[in-house]
Amino acid sequence: MNINVIIDTSGSMAVSWKMSLVRDLCRFASDICMLDERFKEANITFMSWNEKLNNIIPLDKQGRLTIICAGKNDFNVIEQYVEDNEDNYILISDGSCELKKLERKNIVCVLVGDEVDIDRVNLKLKTFSASNVYAAVEYLFLEGI
Prior knowledge:
By secondary structure, the chain is of the alpha/beta class. The protein has a single domain (2-143), classed as 3-Layer(aba) Sandwich (Rossmann fold). The chain has helices at 16-35, 75-84, 133-143, and strands spanning 2-8, 43-49, 53-55, 88-93, 107-111, 126-129. The chain has a six-stranded mixed β-sheet with strand order 3-2-1-4-5-6, with helices on both faces. A hairpin with a 3-residue loop joins β2 (43-49) and β3 (53-55).
């Protein structure tokens, strides 16, 4: 099973504490897949998303990612990528995005930030709080592709 963790790197995510939380969430998701026997076969990758979608170098031993936040999200890029690739996805975002076309069981959203714009988040997309990353990974194994 492939899990692509897509990190919202738009300008609204540029606050340093959000990126610290994102790094922790990514490290935790990676640890879950390594340590929980049920998820050992998972192949987890990390991608950044704003105007385009880019692969990120894997986490180092300290769980650090090199992430630069700027610009706006291009929704067409992520929608096309998900359409073309049958993987599972965890989208980490502050909710400042509208993903109306992504109504699938293989995509979950982990919301970070105290200003999450719940009115803009696609409520048909399964969402989890930042404190519940384990449930997001588990959901993909039970309900995803």
